[in-house]
Design brief:
Blueprint: H1 7-51, H2 59-70, E1 77-82, E2 85-89, E3 103-109, E4 112-121, E5 124-131, H3 132-144, H4 147-181, H5 200-246, H6 251-283, E6 291-294, H7 295-312, E7 316-322, E8 326-329, H8 331-348, E9 354-361, E10 365-372, H9 403-413, E11 417-422, E12 429-436
Helix pairs in contact: 1-3, 1-4, 5-6, 6-9, 7-8, 8-9
The protein binds adenosine-5'-triphosphate and magnesium ion.
Organism: Novosphingobium resinovorum
GO molecular function, one term: phosphorelay sensor kinase activity
EC number: 2.7.13.3
Length: 455
């Protein structure tokens, strides 16, 4: 199951997590700095208190000094001794033992650690101590003062980010509504003016898609019109032939009529087959399977399937060069391509002619060539020969004009280039299909199904 994270959640996550991390670092850093500053400052105060007591003083005066020095905060422990007698203690219920070493020192008493400053002044021994825990508490207090504004910042971000996102996404909602409300025929582009910069690429992409859809729909309509037109002629012919058989005066006439009818039905069947192949290739987005296909096997099978046709015309047909050619692709589509090329070569070559099929391994490419000894295609017709329903003039061979268009479409889908040349040795046409070899650097990029569709 995929978890759907909304843009709002994503933004909040992206904002709050780094902010949280930064806050932790910031507060930790502040604590460390504060702790060092407090250490220094409080040491100064310990010494100040100890040195601030003059050598000759009455007991009562200590209390006044105490108030002055401690500023009401009970975080020091001041003790004064004369000889071994403790004469003053700033807090009645707390006291430290008297130390001997003058100056600063750290002492552990009852599990608590103290920073102590000791000074001998005339008859007095003055000792000022402060608990280290007290110092840490001070630093913590200062650092925690920063937390409150940070929490406020978090709340503001958490509240305002979703609002900002909602405002930003309003355009998207508007575009969705507009597209939703559209009739299937309205494929005019969206107006990108005034849309936010982030939305522009999306609007542009939708417009490109609408444009392609429009062109594809137009092509489909044209194809449907052409196909119906192409079907009308043979169907009218069939009708006529049926009438002729019905009205036949003799058995011989009827037999002839039926023969002609059979041939027409076969031709119409071929037309329907070619039409189906064309529309199937149009409908399929990309090459269905991309398994490694051995073209040699496909060519051999195609030669077997078309052998009766070649035999009927006494055409010498064969595979004259057989380098192994393996390409990624769809076996059925490649078979259709090979069948159409060899079918053309046999059909357009006069009786007793020759057809040579060959597979060549080139430098990073495989070439499939189908050469014949037929009339060839005049230079001026070669580009148009790949157009749907194009039929060359000047020959009587029956056909629908779809074979080369189908072959070209399949070649495109396999990143192969298809060209029409003069057959060097046989004198007729040479159709060359150049496949890239399946090496990482030359791996075929399967053609975008939308392009090339409008041949
Ligand atoms: N080997 C060839 N020799 C001479 N002309 C050819 C050859 N192959 C194709 N052509 C010419 O190109 C035209 C288009 O060929 P294409 O295969 O597309 O259609 P078709 O053969 O007429 O019909 P079908 O859809 O039944 O194949 C043909 O009508 C023919 O004029
Ligand atoms: Mg053909």
């Amino acid at each position: 199951m995929t978890v759907r994270v909304s843009i709002k959640q994503r933004l909040l996550l992206w904002l709050l997590v780094p902010l949280l991390g930064l806050s932790v670092v910031f507060i930790g850093g502040t604590y460390a700095v504060e702790r060092a500053a407090i250490e220094h400052y409080q040491d100064l105060r310990l010494r100040q208190i100890a040195t601030g007591i003059p050598p000759r003083l009455k007991t009562a005066d200590f209390r006044a000094i105490n108030v002055k020095l401690f500023h009401g905060r009970d975080d020091f422990l001041l003790q004064v001794w004369t000889g071994d007698r403790e004469i003053y203690r700033s807090t009645i219920d707390r006291g430290l033992p008297r130390f001997t070493q003058p100056g600063f020192g750290i002492r552990s008493i009852g599990g608590e650690r103290w920073k102590v400053y000791l000074r001998h002044a005339g008859p007095y021994t003055i000792q000022v101590g402060q608990s280290l825990e007290e110092r840490s508490a001070l630093a913590r207090e200062r650092a925690l003062h920063l937390v409150a504004p940070l929490i406020l910042l978090f709340v503001v971000i958490a509240l305002f980010t979703p609002l900002a996102v909602t405002a930003g996404l309003r355009t998207l909602h508007r575009i969705s509504r507009e597209l939703d409300a559209r009739h299937i025929d309205r494929l005019n582009p969206l107006d990108p003016t005034g849309e936010p910069a982030e939305i522009q690429p999306l609007v542009q992409a939708i417009n490109t898609l609408l444009n392609r859809l429009g062109r594809a729909a137009g092509a489909q309509q044209r194809f449907l019109a052409d196909a119906s037109h192409e079907l009308r002629t043979p169907l009218a012919g069939l009708q006529l032939q049926v009438q002729m058989v019905e009205q036949a005066g003799s058995d011989a006439e009827r037999r002839n009529g039926l023969e002609a009818l059979k041939a027409s039905v076969k031709r119409t069947g071929r037309l329907v087959e070619q039409l189906l192949a064309t529309s199937r290739l149009d409908a399929e987005g990309s090459v269905a399977s991309r398994g490694p296909i051995t073209i040699n096997t496909i060519v051999r099978e195609a030669l077997v399937r078309l052998d009766p046709l070649a035999q009927a015309k006494r055409i010498d047909i064969g595979l004259v060069h057989d380098d192994e050619a393996v390409v990624p692709g769809d076996g059925d589509e490649l078979m259709l391509l090979v069948l159409n090329l060899i079918d053309n070569a046999i059909r357009y070559t006069p009786v007793g002619g020759q057809v040579d099929v060959a597979l060549w391994r080139g430098n990073g490419t495989f070439d499939l060539t189908v050469e014949d000894s037929g009339p060839g295609i005049p230079q001026a017709e070669r580009t148009r020969a790949f157009d749907r329903f194009f039929r060359g003039a000047g020959h009587t061979v029956a056909g629908s004009g779809l074979g080369l268009a189908i072959a070209k479409r399949i070649a495109d889908r396999h990143a192969a280039a298809i060209t029409l040349e003069d057959a060097a040795s046989l004198g007729g046409l040479c159709v060359r299909v150049r496949f890239p070899q399946d090496r990482p650097s030359t791996r075929p990029q399967f053609a975008d199904p939308e392009q090339n569709r409008l041949a």
